[in-house]
Design goal:
heterodimer, A: mainly alpha, B: mainly alpha, Helix Hairpins, 26 helices
Chain lengths: ~100, ~625
């Protein structure tokens, strides 16, 4: 999962991800690095300040097909969306 | 005829009215959408006010609870010392019941907030849809307006014409709209080339007087560019129709045409002026030892000379823009000269100036270097070669010393310098077909010095020791085979918009090792057939070796059939060789009808697990 370093995660954060995730999630993280990076970078482009927290807490969302992942977010007003997610990252699951 | 026209006009009017009605309907629809949106926004605002109120209430209750807790602690502290347990218990009970009431109300408020929030979310979805709808309808309205405007104009004019000219319908001609604001195009750039003639002539002719005249002319050009008035106040040029010598002078005729077209297009004036100044000022032949100027100008003059038009005096005045320009200037006037109405002199011109230009022209004509171009070129060429060699930084010009040098690395490096300095010199100023001439000259020079022609093998003496991916040295034959294979792969990839050099080294080696033209082509065809972005290949080079094109085609087709997007498939392309078709079939079946909603990662992982659990094939 070295690509997570490229995404800006520290060793501590990566260890936290590993410890919080089941085997299947870790396998997917290792197997689908390109897809995960694509989705992560897309959400990062919104300028969300707690993007890492969102990733750590809702990793499974980042395994979605990129087109479906984008369609979840781009139907909302960007500023509102960012504000809501920054306030409470749990909003991600409810979108 | 009239009744027929009336009938047709009525039908056409109906069409226009229908269009107008569509426009109005569309406008009304848009207005309605806007009204709906405004209503919903108002509603959402009300919800927000209620939510804020609920939040304030929750805050109050929480503060109340805090103060109750503090009171309870005080009570326990105060009466606990006095050992008044009953009092403490009573107080405790009272405070707790109040706290619980507050908590219940807080929970109610929170539920209320979540209800309002979900309503607001619904409104938001609705607003988003309305917005999309509004955008679409606005576009449609725009199109309708354009269509309505076009057809109503055209049809109305046709109807009017038909009504008023019932007997002459066939004479109707549509008006051609003349765009008065047509942009003036930049003049033919051959004029710019013509200004090079000063530069070229100056480079050939070392006659100082002529060079002075060049600067004189450039000054004149500068003055004319400033204003039309100054041209005729200060320059005092006399364009005499009887002076046939002017027609022979390409310099002056260039000059006059240049003036006329400068006046025509003010925007080009500064640009051309600067170019000319740059060329004349920078082209100081006595001080500049860079012989490439000679080379560039030598060859360039030949070309330009062939293309140079013969500009006669009359043509200058036949130029309409020239005439119009001067005619419109109130300070100027034209005098008809003799019976020839095409030729004019300009008032207030001094005859003396024309004499000066005559002198300049005579000098120009008498210059042998201009007439005997070829001879001068060859002389200059041989001189330039020697000068060029100096510039190529050979350590010694002494031929004896050069002969003493052995054919070793030092000498080879010097030759390399010789060729590399060709690249460093301003080849941009030399036309491409003349670079080979320069190189031939250098080859000849090499033969003169070293007594034998320079061969490429002399330049590349170092033997490359390539190794394969295992570190074993590769023989020359293998290297050449590898290079051939690489070229083939590169060509194939280039045809498909892929850059072979973007792959890492080990990936390139892998591709070269497994290269099979037919297989590579078939894999690429499969990807193109399914419109998979070929950029994904940079991350999935393994598909060329680990899976057949048939298997790949089946997998991709299957994934597309169950609703997976081409983009998603591209994202996992490198993983497909690890998936077997029958495993994927089983994975798909396991999801049943829900399979269209499953992410591709789920499917691939499941198929892989089935494969892994099924044991090795």
């Amino acid at each position: 999962m070295e690509y997570l370093f490229d995404l800006g995660f520290s060793l501590e954060e990566i260890n936290k991800i590993k410890s919080n995730s089941d085997k299947s999630t870790i396998t997917k993280l290792e197997f689908f690095s390109r897809l995960v990076k694509e989705n992560y970078n897309y959400l990062k482009s919104y300028g969300i300040s707690n993007i890492k927290v969102c990733f750590i807490n809702h990793i499974k969302m980042f395994f979605m097909n990129p087109d479906r992942f984008r369609s979840i977010f781009n139907k909302y007003d960007r500023a509102d969306l960012v504000r809501c997610i920054e306030k409470n990252d749990a909003v991600l699951e409810k979108l | 005829m009239d009744s027929l026209i009336r009938e047709v006009n009525e039908n056409l009017k109906t069409i226009i009215d229908n269009l107008k009605e569509n426009v109005d309907n569309s406008t009304n629809t848009l207005d309605n959408i806007q009204i709906q949106m405004d209503k919903k926004v108002e509603e959402a605002k009300k919800y927000k006010i209620q939510v804020d109120a609920a939040k304030d209430r929750i805050r109050e209750l929480e503060e109340d609870n805090k103060s109750l807790e503090l009171s309870l602690k005080e009570l326990q502290y105060k009466y606990g010392k006095m050992n008044l347990i009953s009092v403490i218990e009573a107080g405790n009970k009272e405070i707790k019941s109040k706290t619980n009431d507050n908590i219940r109300e807080i929970n109610k408020q929170k539920e209320h907030i979540s209800e309002l929030t979900s309503k607001a979310r619904t409104i938001k979805d609705l607003l988003l849809n309305l917005k999309k709808d509004k955008t679409l309808k606005e576009e449609k309205l725009e199109n309708l307006k354009v269509v309505y405007s076009f057809y109503s104009d055209k049809l109305n004019s046709i109807m009017d014409y038909a009504f008023n000219h019932s007997e002459n319908l066939m004479d109707y001609k549509d008006e051609v709209i003349v765009n008065e604001d047509e942009e003036v195009e930049i003049n033919d750039t051959s004029d710019l080339d013509n200004t090079m003639v000063f530069d070229e002539i100056a480079s050939i002719d070392e006659n100082k007087n002529f060079k002075d005249e060049m600067s004189f002319i450039s000054d004149k050009i500068e003055d004319t560019i400033v204003s039309d008035n100054k041209l005729f106040e200060e320059d005092n040029l006399n364009i005499d129709e009887t002076n046939d010598e002017y027609s022979e002078s390409s310099v002056t005729s260039d000059y006059y045409q240049f003036i006329s077209e400068e006046n025509d297009n003010n925007e080009e004036e500064d640009k051309l002026e600067k170019e000319l100044e740059k060329k004349i000022i920078s082209n100081d032949l006595e001080e500049n030892s860079d012989a490439n100027i000679f080379n560039s100008d030598i060859f360039h003059v030949e070309e330009v000379k062939n293309n140079e038009p013969e500009i006669e005096e009359e043509k200058v005045f036949e130029n309409e823009t020239f005439e119009n320009n001067f005619l419109t200037n109130s300070n100027l006037g034209f005098e008809n000269v003799g019976d020839n109405n095409d030729v004019f002199t300009i008032k207030g011109l001094d005859v003396e100036e024309s004499k000066d230009t005559e002198v300049h022209k005579e000098e120009y004509i008498s210059d042998d270097s201009f007439e005997d171009n070829e001879n001068n070129f060859s002389e200059l060429e041989s001189n330039d070669l020697i000068n060029n060699l100096e510039n190529f930084k050979l350590e010694s010009n002494n031929e004896e010393e050069l002969d003493e040098l052995e054919i070793d690395d030092t000498r080879i490096n010097k030759i390399n310098d010789l060729f590399s300095s060709i690249n460093d010199t301003k080849t941009s100023s030399i036309p491409l077909d003349n670079i080979s001439k320069v190189e031939n000259q250098i080859d000849n020079a090499y033969v003169d010095i070293f007594g034998k022609p320079l061969e490429e093998s002399d330049l590349n003496k170092k033997e490359s020791t390539l190794t394969d991916i295992f570190g074993n040295p590769i023989s020359k034959e293998e290297v050449s085979e590898s290079v051939k294979t690489q070229k083939k792969i590169e060509e194939l990839f280039v045809e498909n918009g892929i850059d072979f050099n973007k792959f890492k080294e080990d990936e390139q080696s892998y591709l070269k090792q497994i290269y099979d033209e037919e297989k590579f082509i078939s894999i690429l065809e499969v990807l193109k057939k399914h419109k998979i972005n070929l950029d994904n290949i940079y991350y999935s080079f393994n598909i060329f070796g680990e899976i057949s094109s048939f298997e790949l085609d089946s997998l991709i087709s299957k994934l597309i059939n169950i609703g997976q997007s081409v983009e998603s498939i591209g994202m996992v392309l490198e993983k497909l060789p690890k998936v077997k078709k029958y495993n994927l079939d089983d994975a798909i079946m396991s999801y049943g009808d829900y399979v269209n909603n499953v992410d591709i990662t789920e499917l691939i992982i499941k198929a892989k697990e089935l494969y892994d659990n099924g044991g090795n094939l």
